[in-house]
Please model this.
Amino acid sequence: MLADIIQVAPVNPFKRLTRQQSRLRLAIDGPSGSGKTFTALRIARGLSDKPAAMIDTEAHSADLYGSFFHADAITLKDHSPQSYIKAIADAEAFGYEVIIIDSLTHEWVWTLEDVDRRSANARNKFTAWAEPSRQHKLLVEAMLQTNLHVIATIRSEMDYAIDGASVKKLGMAPTQRKGMEYEFTILMDMDLGHNVTISKSRIFEIADKVYPKPGEELGKFLREWLSEGTPIAPRSVTPASLLAAASADAPRGVRDEDEDPRSNPVTTADRTLIQSLGAKLSPDGVKAFYGTALPSYGFPVTEPLLEQWRSFVREGGGEPAGKAIAWLQQTLLDESVPEAPVTAHDDPGAPVESQVA
Model:
């Protein structure tokens, strides 16, 4: 064949490193009184000639600086990740160039409280983490994908560790999800003397430096550095599209490192279908359910598995499969059901055949 005659040279999948323009992703952490908000406003003024947009979660504390800075603030109705994403999308839509998130700590506190609320009705803590973790990740993605410069303040508190019978101070630790610092271009640690230490930077000119009361000059330097290179490529993901994803129900099959592998999200339609099995499954259907469907639930819910459930309904007409449905509701749907009487053939460790014969 012609393809066998003509030798096509392989295409190199690697590309030469090219400096591109970029947007700032800056986190400023420090204890109360270190000057995070004031420093963020000063750096923002150096980054852009336009007023900055500001997410204010600190009970209008930024208004105290209204005489010094031209910035427009929004107070969120709640501190959910979705509210933060919407504010970022709105800032883009109204033409701002810089957004200050003051502070990002409130989102994480809200997320932990959301997990606690869900844990009250969940089978285990892993199940309760699934949706809050998905929402948190969408917020992180919105901060990374936005066309705005992002300056986020994060509260810090003393971190401790138990070493035998003693307690050691480990230093200040940001109050946010572990690993959040990896998402930022620059991480600044502030102390009560209003000094900034650059603890992480992808801009080598300022790495490891200490700045006493940094402000507009640092912002101007960052503005110039970030504007060098080829233009930013068009984005396929935007805060607006991520807001739509955050507003939608969690898709089936979404998995998270904090999530129990059996805790796949179940839609209302799926829930109704599963519960209907209690009155329609025949004994043979129960055998198939125990032997085929349940072991498969350790993986994301798939269309073949849903079709298996539907086939159980279609073949119904026999005795109610109360024990099977009780187990399913209690284990997968986080619903409390009366404990069924235990008999010899109900031994949970017995083979499937002896349980449902």
User: Anything to note?
Assistant: The chain has a mean pLDDT of 75.
